[in-house]
Write a structure and sequence with these properties.
The protein has helices at about 25-30, 35-40, 45-50, 55-75, 80-85, 100-105, 105-120. It starts with about 20 loop residues before the first helix and ends with a helix. The protein contains 7 helices and no strands.
Length: about 120
């Protein structure tokens, strides 16, 4: 577990030397393949492996990281539970998995679902 002051981030997903998010590390932390992360970020897997902390990727990765941190908070601080939740079919998503939404570049659908859970809206 990260120090309390770093609970707003996923420490393992950052390059310690630069502090920037690293797409390959983020993928590994979330149990995603490099190909899945590339699809989510609209890049090639080769490009991600070559330059995983590209400045061009930072905004999209920050948004994804923010979603994961919110989920981790809702799921008792467990990244393992986050991995399970992402790959489990959800009735609000029509039986699709949140991961399939991410792969289809529908991050907003997952963000709205998480927001509903955070605010106690009926699902």
């Amino acid at each position: 577990m990260s120090p309390k002051l770093l609970e707003h981030t996923i420490v393992e997903a950052h390059d310690a030397a630069t502090g920037k998010l690293d797409a390959v590390r983020l993928a590994e932390t979330l149990g995603f393949s490099t190909e899945e992360m590339a699809q989510i970020l609209k890049r090639t897997s080769r490009g991600l492996r070559k330059n995983p902390d590209s400045d061009k990727l930072q905004d999209d990765m920050v948004r994804l990281e923010s979603l994961i941190v919110r989920l981790r908070y809702l799921l008792d601080g467990s990244i393992e539970y986050v991995r399970i939740w992402l790959r489990s079919p959800h009735p609000i998503l029509g039986g699709d998995t949140p991961m399939s939404c991410l792969l289809e570049r529908k991050l907003e659908s997952v963000e709205l679902l998480v927001h509903a859970m955070e605010t106690g809206q009926p699902l």
